[in-house]
């Protein structure tokens, strides 16, 4: 079955039937009836351009009272158009009169154009007839309307497809879409032509005013045969959903030290796109950048980064997203806390070993922060019962990267009953010098270095008696070498911090 509308008409001109008047006073005829368009469609206006001629051999003018187009044959009289009081035609002259008619359905029409006149010479009535046969068929281009899912108050899109199945190209094609309860934001498309058996697509945009069913009607106007304008329409029904607003924010702290930021995920759970999204954050203890997003589709998430400048280590933050949904301005917000975590040194893995009258304290300077700690120095604090001792009264650790550690060794002498040894740690973070003090429990001792024993027997003689001297000399030599190495490394064995 053919979809769309097409038109075909055939006109058969049987010929003029001149009518001679008694007494040969008037010799006149309908010389031609020009039908336009020659291929009419149902409902289309057809023009019958009728030419009446009074021949030169007539002896009197022909007075034209009426010209009509009627159905030929059948019961009763069906008249489509009539024009009256048209004046007279002198011998040798013509008169052209347009008549119009339209036909609601396809089919063949047998018609007749009739001229009712009067012989001005004899006063007798004159009647001229001209038969017309017209074939009307449904042949318009095929039209189809498609529309995307729509939501009340939200602009949506669609398109009209016009496919021409006619025998020749159509020109001056205009597509106009109108809606019931729908605001059209783009409704008109014009194309210069559509080729024979070709097609075009006309986009349109619309905004339903409410949820529910709405009709969309596309009207297509076009020209055939160069001068005949036709119009056809197509209607479809759409069902628009109610607008649902659901936008959520999720925040994550990122960055390190003072270079902190918030990563914000904007999730559009609404059933329509959101646009002009401004994501911002406010706090009494920090300031943030703002980020603008143009559009987030429905059921889609976008992430943005809000860089922060913190005045204090902790900031309570309100994150807000302002956006357009449909024709309304909406807002959603969430609360979070942002903390600055600069580099921080802690002493871990501590171990205390007694070496004669000294304590060797070993461990790691561990950076438990998220930025580097520079110029890290571990020192034994000089107190009433604790004295820094060689070879390492302090230990220059240097730089400890974030989440890393560097080992150290320091020495101390104690007097009396001492349960802990204080260690001072100084370092620089974000151009700021920090100082911390740690009390190292002497109960963490890992053992002691064994002292050389004297043999009371007679078997060793003088050689055994000299052993303590050699041991003491060796220890002294080790101390001197250690001091020289330390001085070489530091340039100064006693650095005050």
TrEMBL record:
Protein name according to UniProt: CARDB domain-containing protein
PANTHER family on file: CONSERVED WITHIN P. AEROPHILUM, S-LAYER DOMAIN-LIKE PROTEIN-RELATED
Keywords: Membrane, Transmembrane, Transmembrane helix
Tree of life domain: Archaea
Chain positions covered by the region annotation Disordered: 439-463
Transmembrane segments: 466-485
Signal peptide: none
Keyword Lipid metabolism listed: no
């Amino acid at each position: 079955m053919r979809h769309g509308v097409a038109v075909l008409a055939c006109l058969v001109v049987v010929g003029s039937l001149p009518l001679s008047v008694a007494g040969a006073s008037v010799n006149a005829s309908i010389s031609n009836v020009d039908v336009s368009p020659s291929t009419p469609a149902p409902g289309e206006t057809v023009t019958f351009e009728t030419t009446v001629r009074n021949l030169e051999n007539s002896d009197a003018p022909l007075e034209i009272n009426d010209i009509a187009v009627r159905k030929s044959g059948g019961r009763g009289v069906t008249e489509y158009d009539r024009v009256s009081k048209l004046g007279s035609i002198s011998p040798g002259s013509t008169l052209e009169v347009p008549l119009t008619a339209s036909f609601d359905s396809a089919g063949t029409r047998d018609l007749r154009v009739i001229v009712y006149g009067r012989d001005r010479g004899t006063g007798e009535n004159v009647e001229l007839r001209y038969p017309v046969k017209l074939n009307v068929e449904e042949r318009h281009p095929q039209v189809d309307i498609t529309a995307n899912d729509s939501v009340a108050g939200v602009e949506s899109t669609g398109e009209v497809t016009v496919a021409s199945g006619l025998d020749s190209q159509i020109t001056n094609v205009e597509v106009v879409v109108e809606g019931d309860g729908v605001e059209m934001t783009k409704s008109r498309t014009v194309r210069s032509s559509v080729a024979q058996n070709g097609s075009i697509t006309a986009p349109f945009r619309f905004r339903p005013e409410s949820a529910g069913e709405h009709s969309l009607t596309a009207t297509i106007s076009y020209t055939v045969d160069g001068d005949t304008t036709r119009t056809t329409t197509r209607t479809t029904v759409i069902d628009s959903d109610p607008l649902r607003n659901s936008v959520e924010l999720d925040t994550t702290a990122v960055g390190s030290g003072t270079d902190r930021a918030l990563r914000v995920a904007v999730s559009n759970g609404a059933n329509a796109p959101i646009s002009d999204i401004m994501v911002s954050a406010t706090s009494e203890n920090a300031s943030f950048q703002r980020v603008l997003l143009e559009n987030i589709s429905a059921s889609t998430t976008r992430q943005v980064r809000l860089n922060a400048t913190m005045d204090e280590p902790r900031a309570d933050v309100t994150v807000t997203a302002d956006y357009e949904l449909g024709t309304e301005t909406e807002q959603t917000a969430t609360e979070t806390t942002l903390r600055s975590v600069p580099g921080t040194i802690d002493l871990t893995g501590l171990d205390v070993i007694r070496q004669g009258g000294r304590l060797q304290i070993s461990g790691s300077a561990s950076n438990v922060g998220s930025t580097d700690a520079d110029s890290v120095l571990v020192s034994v604090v000089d107190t009433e019962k604790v004295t820094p001792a060689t070879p390492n009264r302090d230990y220059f650790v240097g730089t400890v990267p974030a989440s890393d550690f560097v080992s150290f060794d320091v020495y101390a002498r104690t007097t009396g009953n001492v349960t802990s040894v204080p260690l001072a740690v100084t370092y620089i973070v974000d151009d700021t010098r920090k100082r911390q003090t740690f009390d190292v429990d002497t109960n963490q001792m890992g053992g002691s270095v064994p002292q050389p024993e004297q043999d009371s027997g007679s078997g060793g003689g003088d050689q055994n008696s000299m052993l303590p001297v050699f041991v003491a000399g060796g220890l002294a030599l080790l101390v001197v070498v250690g001091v020289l190495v330390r001085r070489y490394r530091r340039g100064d064995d006693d650095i005050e911090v």
